[in-house]
Amino acid sequence: MKLSVIIVNYNVKYFLEQALRSVRKASTKMEVEVFVVDNNSIDDSVKMVREQFPEVQLIANQENTGFSKANNQAIRIAKGEYVLLLNPDTVVEEDTFEKTVAFMDAHPDAGGLGVKMIDGKGKFLPESKRGFPSPKVAFFKTFGFSKIFPKSKTFNGYHLGYLDKDKVHEIDVLSGAFMLMRSSVLEEIGLLDETFFMYGEDIDLSYRIVKAGYKNYYFPETTIIHYKGESTKKGSLNYVRVFYNAMIIFARKHFKGEKAAAFILMLQGAIYFRAAITVLSSFLKKAFLPILDALVFFLGMYLLKDFWATYVYNNPDYYSLTFMQFNVPLYISIWLAAIFFSGGYDAPNSLRRLVRGLAVGTLVLAAVYGFLEMEYRTSRALILLGALWGLLGLWSLRVVLHFIRYRNFRLNTPHTSNLVIVGAEEESKRVLNLLHQAQLNKNFIGTVTPKKEDNHKEVLGYLHQLEEVVQIYKIDELIFCSKDVAAQKIMHWMTRLGPDVDYKMVPEKSLSIIGSNSKNSAGDLYTIEIQFRIANRLSRRNKRILDLGLCLFLLVLSPILILFMKQKMRFLRNIFQVFLGQKTWVGYLPLSELQHLPPLPPAVLSPRNGLPMRIENESTLRRLNFLYAKDYSASRDLEILFRGWRSLDGE
């Protein structure tokens, strides 16, 4: 056996399917065995591998054992002369295995090898080649110097930015996304260190390879796509904590004395620094529009106050300082909160949600107004004028921001991508049908075919003319049919056309169209599988608000309701558990098969409580759960609660 390919998977079924299809194509001219180690995924990954890839040796773990331990499970039974650790969110070229193994055969000093990687937009990933994280290297990376001076040998030693990305180089660290190693070297230095749960294990293993006297090589003569954001969700506090803690484990293992102490101290500081940057960045992204809205409101209320005082009360000093210091911040807070809870800050911008938020906020202000002390009660007309100002000002702000970004005023009209499918006639029609079934709004321009004899009516040109087609028709999105276009060609065009175009691929016989527009975010997935409304962010927020509102309502009525409850203490306990988010008032029936549905906390009531008869048939109950998730609405929760209120003391 020449090569053993090992893929560790955790809940990325669609990307795994695409990776395995590319591995299958790359294995046709070589003796290759493939392992998939699944770390207890709940997305039917195991079922997909068993049904579609019977040649794969599947190891289905009953828990998430982590990256290192899962890889070691397969390495111990692998028979290949070489072992390749490959991420599930990758696509390899048809000749990737041949080229990389041939290089290793020709370089007996090579212990490991990495390749050129691009992301889902065709951009080179700098982690394709890395240096060891010495204290100096880690410091410059942590505090951003490597980004400021990407080509500097001094400041960007982590990504070796001074090395030509198109030439073979000896490097320090291989990327865990594609890590080709000699089995004999692994036998000599040991397998992956299972102390590392995720992150750092590739650095540790690379370090041990070099320490044993072998070399690690960067090999750019073949390219792979690494979607990145799929197997590791970056930009989160958890990522910062796990990544830098992995670096601390590495430092404690390989550095000694003062050097180790200083390095660990710096890394611990980096955790807090990076965490602060992450929190601040996340806050600014989410708070940017509300902060601008607050400023627009404040300016409007200041002008309205002066106008009303001068022309209605004939006294420019009619309003005291407390109006701007107390009343206006209170009004703005209530308006912004109402807009937020009505979905006014969810994309895309919606005039309907903005109006609804302002209307609800104004009603709340009208109610609050009566509870204020007399000295804080100002003209109610200012509240109404403020709401009108908010409608005009906030919507105008959104129009301006939209124009700055998209150079058009079609704010309420979602941008329709100009789409071209790259493939032969039969597969192109299948992909177009998938798009229709998924109900995606795309402006289908036509097909670019790799075959000159393929002359169906929607052909815009041939593959070598793809660049001209993109320019002439202003194409936003390309979907490549993997059945008809080689991965090598796809990556060539992704790199050549650059990041201004969105790229997707559809594997042969697959019902999913896959791509990723950012290395730090979840990928894009077009699939004809069911979309659950309960998984929608606005639906989940509304459900939580409803739960909290019902808690307060039931708590007020509890002296009366408790008289009708058999389990009085359990009823009160349910109120507090729902309030704390440990339960929800309405949710799924507690059946054994819930893994295919979006997760919800344990429920007090279920769809069965909304029915006039008692149902025990399990298939019917599963269907009730399915329909509840698919067609969720707050009104449905209220209906179930109204019908089943006598069971509010249930488990």
Which labels suit this protein?
Rossmann fold; seven-stranded mixed β-sheet; 20 helices; Spore Coat Polysaccharide Biosynthesis Protein SpsA, Chain A; 651 residues; 47% helix; nine-stranded mixed β-sheet
Question: Can you walk through the features of this model?
Answer:
This protein is of the alpha/beta class and 651 residues long. Helix content is 47%, strand content 15%. The strands form 3 sheets. Strands 1, 2, 3, 4, 5, 6, 7, 8 and 9 form a 9-stranded mixed beta sheet that branches. A 7-stranded mixed beta sheet has the order 12-11-10-13-14-15-16, sandwiched between helices. Strands 17-18 form a two-stranded parallel sheet. Strand 10, helix 14 and strand 11 (443-449) form a beta-alpha-beta unit.
How are the elements arranged and paired?
Blueprint: E1 3-9, H1 13-26, E2 32-39, H2 45-52, E3 57-61, H3 67-75, E4 82-86, E5 90-92, H4 96-106, E6 110-118, H5 135-142, H6 145-148, E7 169-171, E8 178-182, H7 183-189, H8 201-211, E9 215-226, H9 237-254, H10 257-311, H11 321-341, H12 351-369, H13 380-406, E10 418-422, H14 425-437, E11 443-449, E12 459-462, H15 466-472, E13 477-481, H16 487-497, E14 502-506, E15 512-515, E16 524-527, H17 537-561, H18 568-579, E17 584-586, E18 603-605, H19 618-630, H20 634-643
Parallel strand pairs: 1-2, 1-4, 2-3, 6-9, 10-11, 10-13, 11-12, 13-14, 17-18
Antiparallel strand pairs: 4-8, 5-9, 6-8, 7-9, 14-15, 15-16
